[in-house]
Amino acid sequence: MSWRTRTADERTADPAGGRLARQATASLAGLLAERGMSRKDLADRMGVSPGRVSQILSGGENLTLKSLAAVADSLGARVEITFAEPSGATSAPSPSPAAPLPVTTGAPHRDS
């Protein structure tokens, strides 16, 4: 099998990963708007270029947990990841709901 041949699972993961990246970047853009912050403001807090922040916010990049944690840390926010049944799923209910897994990224950023 060629290294360029993709499995059915990989083709299915691409759209799902894209949706997840768009959700994350939309949430981040909303948080920036709520705080009245620009991309440059975020870049300054993260210690990266505004172009790097644009890459993150474009939603087209394969976001890593590390990059999301770095953004959250610079904003004094947290990242939560929750696995849940899709809307309309007809599976048996689980004994207890899954709690979000907070990602601790360090002390919140405070302006001096």
From TrEMBL:
Domain of life the protein comes from: Bacteria
Start and end residues of each stretch annotated as Disordered: 1-22, 86-112
SUPFAM superfamilies named in the record: lambda repressor-like DNA-binding domains
Entries under InterPro entries matching the protein: Cro/C1-type_HTH, Lambda_DNA-bd_dom_sf
Comp. bias (Basic and acidic residues): 1-13
Residue span, HTH cro/C1-type domain: 28-83
Name of the featured protein: HTH cro/C1-type domain-containing protein
Organism: Streptomyces luteireticuli
